[in-house]
């Protein structure tokens, strides 16, 4: 019953229903161009909606994390807006602090930074270990402001916590300042196929894959303007 429900939900809700409609359209039209267009639309929508594609895109986008955690001087937690994504980054940052005893830098903008501070203190981080940057509106400003803090305080071994898709671009920004950082994903995902359900179209997977593709485009743009 569980698998039947999952299969039915996958087929009657987007993006699965769109795959079916594209296939029906491809089988119904006579014009070769339209038939080809509908088939390509069905295939592309399906591929963007399944977890094996996520695994493939992760290998392109996500840098390998160093879970051995050598001596760390500071943990940088990148802001992610007033979202659950930001919360997951903060929880992971607190976890790394607990393992290493390193201070934590949070970087965001105004309300976002205040929310991050309140959340970290609420889950047990001592305020004496917290450094707050409230003046960063995007990744570029965050790295620039954090680098000022790092240089002022003489930090050398830096761990950066962010959502997995964001880490490669963050590392590229830090390298512009001559700093190599240790990437720590706040949302590690499984890199294996569990069962046939991973081959069913899913809107949540579609969104993840869209995010990875958007990040790939951002990385390409970043490298082209360097």
Overview of this protein structure:
The chain has 226 residues and is α/β, with parallel strands linked by helices. The chain folds into 2 domains: 1-49; 74-185, HUPs (Rossmann fold). It is built from 9 helices and 5 strands. It has helices at residues 2-12, 16-28, 32-47, 51-61, 84-100, 111-122, 139-153, 164-176, 203-224, and strands at 74-78, 104-107, 130-133, 158-162, 182-185. The protein has a 5-stranded parallel beta sheet, sandwiched between helices. Strand 2, helix 6 and strand 3 (130-133) form a beta-alpha-beta unit. The longest helix has 22 residues, at 203-224. It is elongated, with a radius of gyration of 21 Å. The model has no long low-confidence stretch (mean pLDDT 91).
Say which CATH homologous superfamily of the largest domain is assigned: HUPs
Biggest sheet: strand arrangement: 3-2-1-4-5
Oligomerization: single chain
Rg over CA atoms, rounded to whole Å, is 21 Å
| End-to-end CA span | 54 Å
Provide the structure class. Answer: alpha/beta
Q: How much helical structure, as a percent, in the residues? A: 55-70%
Second-tier CATH architecture of the largest domain: 3-Layer(aba) Sandwich
- Tally the structural domains: 2
Report the biggest beta sheet as strand number plus sense, adding barrel if it closes: 5 strands, parallel
Question: Beta-sheet strand percentage?
Answer: 5-15%
Average residue-wise pLDDT: 91
Number of helices: 9
CATH domain class name of the largest domain: Alpha Beta
Outline the low-pLDDT stretches. Answer: none
**Global geometry:** elongated
Order of helical and strand elements: HHHHEHEHEHEHEH
Q: How many beta strands in the DSSP annotation?
A: 5
Q: In CATH terms, what is the fold-level topology of the largest domain?
A: Rossmann fold
